[in-house]
User: What shape does this take?
Amino acid sequence: MTVKKQGAEELLGVNKFSVDEEEPHIVIDKSICAKCKDKPCLVICPAVLYTLKDGEINFDYAGCLECGTCRVMCTNKGIVKWTYPRGTFGVAFRYG
Amino acid sequence: MGEEEKFDAIIIGAGPAGTACAYVLAKEGKNVLLIERGVSAGSKNVTGGRLYTYALELVEPGLHSEAPLERKVIREQIMMLGKKSAVTIDYLDYTFKEEVPQSYSVLRAPFDEWFAGKAEEQGAMVASGILVDDLLFEGNKVIGVKAGEDEMYADVVIAADGINSFMAQKAGLRSDLTGHMVGVGVKEVIELPAEIIQDRFNVASDEGTARMIIGCTEGIQGGGFLYTNKDSVSLGIVFSPENAAKQGKSIHEIYQDFKMHPAIYPLIRDGNTVEYGAHLVPESGWRGVPQKLYRDGFIVTGDAAGFCINTGTILRGIDLAIVSGVAAARAVIEAKDGSTVGTSYMRELEQLGLIPTMKLFAGWPDIVAIPRMAETYPHLANDALRFMFTVDGTVPEKMPKAMRAIVKKHVSMGQLIADGWKGVTSI
Assistant: This one.
């Protein structure tokens, strides 16, 4: 496959993840997000894990690259929990 | 791990800062525990990236010769993108590869894993796959760490847990990051045969190119980078998230469009993307370093301490991390107990030149932050060069008049003077 313009989901597919199905490491409170006008998360997440669906923020922690940008930029505090995944879980970079 | 066991030092995070620290301490015969949350050292780390070799030599002379490094960087380039054009400055210097080469391109997963293995060989205990949740205190003193149900104790705890450093926050030395303090880097590692890389970048089999790129962020403060590895290319952009949030396009998509730019795509064509990574970068330089980097029984190193320098041509992070790790180790060796380790650490950072260098570049983030650096000036440079190379059979304008018009099209005289003044005063 030659390099080309790719969607985030497709690109994340080449990465290695070990998803912690029991304990999400990032949790959002959609009622707070609903009141947030800025929604910086929609554009600043490198993995595009924050999306709008029928006007509501949808979030999936499974493809998280653990950079921390969403936490830093979430000024209205809709992100109510942001920790690193438990040991061994999450993304495992093979190149870095 | 029994509660009875007490380490001389517990280090949180097996990146370059933590591992350098563990290596030096273990070599000195200290009882060291190096804790890493990833399944192996390096599995959580992303860099541009390049390693300035002197830092590894500080840990142990000759160490670089066995490290899994990529290519010796001999071509230093600055690229300014226009819409369908580019101006590239190419500085070639073969002295950069003599004896101990000045710098190498590097991929962090193999490098960090190797480095942690070297620390282990020196006698450090490396515990991977463990996330440290909290610090343990006794009065004002940090006495250990908590990971799940386990409690581990040490004379000194060293935070080398990266830019988000929850440990420095828990120690009360830092508040959480804000948008203007950081850049968010996104990067693809694109595999290509070594011979093709050598042809496209005009380098020999052990040589490489480092390229800084401006004009690729659609006006958002930030810039791109390209490093040649042995058989891959690291291509990415670092964005100001605060700036990016003010416009409507996803940084992922801006990066994808950059990849397809007519001056970039031919460099990566027929390549195969094998990884997509992202990471935060400290962007405030010395001003972003916490006022205090220690407390009783506790010190902060590397990205956790905000050690990073960006001059536009030089990007330093890994080397500063290693130097701070060595400084921390020396402080632990010197100090009689945890209460004096902090002041020893600051003295070492000073003596090893880290603090003086960071102070020297303290004003430079202001230049990077000039709004016109991201788009206006790169476009201006492209228009100026287009004029100088264009022949279409018509009578061209006189050079001074044409140049004035090009400048005027992009920037007002007032802005130009203000930016020039800012440049001079920041340096």
